[in-house]
């Protein structure tokens, strides 16, 4: 077998095991005298060469792969930052559109936004507090005085409620700034009966609900307020809610008790009608 078959160009490239065994002495003699150990050495050497070559190629491939992986990770990181920036821009745009949608919904009367629905809930809470809780407080603050007539007693109690509306809900779009004690002191200055234990207990509950209502209004994108600017005596019957359910055919508004809940915007919208005191049926 010729040495060139194994890819060698000189004896220096032949494994040491072959040199020591005399496998290079002659062509014929080398074939006849080759010891089995020489073949085993040759196989080991070949395996080592192949293994080293494989290791070199593997290391080179790993190096290239690592470099490419780093490049991919850097690219992905940059993409993530760009996506975050886009997401922030989209959120800002959605907020702007949402606010505009609220204004459009209120201006056109469509209850399609969360903020608008929240205002409807708060307006309902305001009306319930006035017509139920404050009405009851008005009775406590104004006990009947001797032979006082029905109309005069109803008027005094309605006036007490009107005072409560101003003290508890004005301005509606700002958090409560007065303490319960300060409000009670003002009611006492109006000559109202504020010393009863029943009144104090009930007023504490109403005060907390008024605080929650004002905080709810203040937290929304569009503010709301109570419309004190109207002239109740000029209102038509279908533009106000009478304080008493029954009234004479010729009854007319006398004064404002609870203004309408109005949501701001380019065209402010009233959520409900103002509550006014009218001369009730059965005048003395």
Distinctive features:
rod-shaped; disordered N terminus; 284 residues; three-stranded mixed β-sheet; single chain; 7 helices; three-stranded antiparallel β-sheet; mainly alpha
Structural class: mainly alpha
- Number of helical segments? 7
Order of helices and strands: HHHHHHHEEEEEE
Share of residues in helices: 55-70%
* Mean residue pLDDT: 80
List the helices and strands and how they pair.
Elements: H1 16-21, H2 27-33, H3 36-108, H4 114-141, H5 150-169, H6 180-189, H7 197-218, E1 224-226, E2 241-242, E3 253-258, E4 261-263, E5 269-270, E6 275-278
Parallel strand pairs: 2-6
Antiparallel strand pairs: 1-4, 3-6, 4-5
Task: Explain what you see.
This protein is mainly alpha-helical and 284 residues long. Helix content is 58%, strand content 7%. The protein is built from 7 helices and 6 strands. The protein has helices at 16-21, 27-33, 36-108, 114-141, 150-169, 180-189, 197-218; strands at residues 224-226, 241-242, 253-258, 261-263, 269-270, 275-278. The protein has a 3-stranded antiparallel sheet, covered by helices on one side. It has a 3-stranded mixed sheet with strand order 2-6-3. Helix 4 packs across helix 5 and helix 4 packs antiparallel against helix 7 (197-218). The chain starts with 15 loop residues before the first helix and ends in a 6-residue tail after the last strand. The relative contact order is 0.10. Mean pLDDT is 80; it is low at 1-14 and 17-32.
